[in-house]
Specification:
- The complex is a heterodimer of chains A (231) and B (213).
- Chain A has one domain: Glutaconate Coenzyme A-transferase (3-Layer(aba) Sandwich), CATH 3.40.1080.10.
- Helix content of chain A is 20%, strand content 27%.
- In chain A, strands 1, 2, 3, 4, 8, 9, 10 and 11 form an eight-stranded mixed sheet that branches. Chain A has a three-stranded antiparallel sheet with strand order 5-7-6.
- In chain A, helix 5 packs across helix 6.
- Chain A is globular.
- The mean pLDDT of chain A is 96.
- Chain B is of the alpha/beta class and 213 residues long.
- Chain B has one domain: Glutaconate Coenzyme A-transferase, CATH 3.40.1080.
- Chain B is 16% helix and 27% strand.
- Chain B contains five helices and 15 strands.
- In chain B, helix 3 packs parallel to helix 4.
- Chain B is globular and about 50 Å long.
- The two termini of chain B are 20 Å apart.
- The model of chain B has no long low-confidence stretch (mean pLDDT 96).
- The chains are: A alpha/beta (231), B alpha/beta (213).
Chain lengths: 231, 213
């Protein structure tokens, strides 16, 4: 089956519908699927629920879909870098579900692994635990968190082969492997598509079974906090 | 004289033990890495998926794919490793990290911590803080003793939404060091020229005085 598409817009064809849920890889602006986010904007799909650790900045990454009001709800752990996000949230235009970062990562991992729920100590005694099942194990209290499956996942990898095997680079890996497993359909964008057999088989982070479509894209890789020492 | 940010970080570094795996929060906690004893083997974990964080890069070394949890550019070391977010939080939630140093808005005498939200005002999110305080073996808070309005941040009970319940082990402020014990807080050290009376006046929590001789 051919997985490689010529463009991000073509790769999204037939996959988007209003009200859908989309898992988006990345941490801040690091390792985000820049091209697929722009293509999502082009499709005009609306009322999306986005599961993503952050929501970009005002004019880059997921912030672009806030500008166009395509997002109905965000499921995130931290959204502090985005003034438009705050404005839409405080005015009630945007729904927000905060998840502790580790809980969010584990929910995606569990969802992708066919695990509908798991117990964790994270959030016990906080507003995160309200309305959730509590259970004691070995004298400690845990809360039940649900696995997440999404209609679509979009991820960014460094290199991918034509079968969809993916390798990530440094901390640009972050949530991408979890998102790739949680999508009913997963689209990957990579910096370079390489021939099958040329990736190190022992360093493939996301095996091809999780990836249904892929594109090669150009990446701006914007830096959020450029911090240097005297050299 | 009260401790500066750097001096608070230096004091927090005394909580390190050789061989520790450590996660440092954003702000003053990040400065702790400047005071690691040179003969200690300390490994810094970053919850976005890295073990063995190096220093900030030179202009030539900047790599957009290499950042810490504060989204700052960093460098790698020979011994560094990278992993995904769920693997990173498996280390944190699984109790494999020895120490975390975090900032705080409020701490209570039973070890409750609030550092992520001011309802109606500050809505940024908890990031990895709830996972860190519930999973890391020892939690050290570094913060100013009072807020910008001069109100104490060391309380009988937190007023802000909690990050974790009974999770703090040690509090380092600009005025001194307090330990969370079963019967409340114990003042165990004072910054130079700070008096017990000043700490008591600026503290709402019940405070036992247990200064080392």
């Amino acid at each position: 089956m051919k997985k490689v598409y010529a463009s991000a817009v073509e790769a999204l064809e037939g996959l988007v519908f209003d009200g859908m849920t989309i898992a988006v890889g990345g941490f801040g602006l690091c390792g985000i699927p820049e091209n697929l986010i722009i293509a999502l904007r082009e499709t005009g799909v609306k009322d999306i629920t986005v599961v993503s650790n952050n929501c970009g900045v005002d004019d880059f990454g997921m912030g672009l879909l806030l500008q166009t009001r395509q997002i109905k709800k965000m499921v995130s752990s931290y959204v502090g870098e985005n003034a438009e996000f705050m404005r839409q949230y405080l005015s009630g235009e945007l729904e927000l579900e905060f998840n502790p970062q580790g809980t969010l990562a584990e929910r995606l991992r569990a969802g992708g692994a066919g695990i509908p729920g798991f117990y964790t100590k994270t959030g016990v005694g906080t507003i995160i635990a309200e309305g959730k099942e509590h259970k004691d194990f070995d004298g400690e209290t845990y809360i039940l968190e649900r696995g997440i499956k999404t209609d679509l996942a979009i991820v960014k990898a460094w290199k991918g082969d034509e079968k969809g095997n993916l390798t990530y680079r440094k901390t640009a890996m972050n949530f991408n492997p979890e998102c790739a497993t949680a999508g009913k359909v997963t689209l990957a964008e990579v910096e370079e598509i390489v021939p099958v057999g040329s990736l190190d088989k022992m360093a493939i982070h996301t095996p091809e079974v999780y990836v249904q479509r892929m594109i090669q894209g150009e990446h701006e890789k914007r830096i959020e906090q450029r911090t240097v020492r005297a050299g | 004289m009260a401790w500066t940010r750097e001096q608070m970080a230096e004091r927090a570094a005394k909580e390190l033990e050789d061989g520790f795996y450590v996660n440092l929060g954003i702000g003053i906690p990040t400065l702790v890495s400047n005071y690691v004893p040179s003969d200690y083997d300390i490994t810094l974990q970053s919850e976005n998926g890295m073990m063995g964080m190096g220093p900030f890069p030179t202009e030539d070394e900047i790599d957009a794919d290499l950042i810490n949890a504060g989204k700052q550019t960093i460098t790698e070391l020979n011994r560094s490793s990278y992993f995904s977010s769920s693997a990173s939080f498996a280390m944190i939630r699984g109790g494999h990290i020895d120490l975390s140093v975090l900032g705080a808005m409020e701490v209570a005498q039973n070890g409750d911590l609030a550092n992520w939200m001011i309802p109606g005002k500050l809505v940024k999110g908890m990031g990895g803080a709830m996972d860190l305080v519930s999973g890391v073996k020892r939690i050290v808070v570094v913060m100013d003793h009072t807020n910008k309005k001069g109100e104490t941040k060391v309380l009988k009970e937190c007023t802000l939404p909690l990050t974790g319940q009974g999770v703090v082990d040690l509090i380092i402020t600009d005025l001194g060091v307090m330990e969370v014990r079963d019967n409340g807080l114990a003042l165990i050290e004072l910054a130079p020229d700070v008096t017990v009376e000043e700490v008591q006046a600026k503290t709402d929590a019940d405070l036992t005085i247990d200064l080392a001789a």
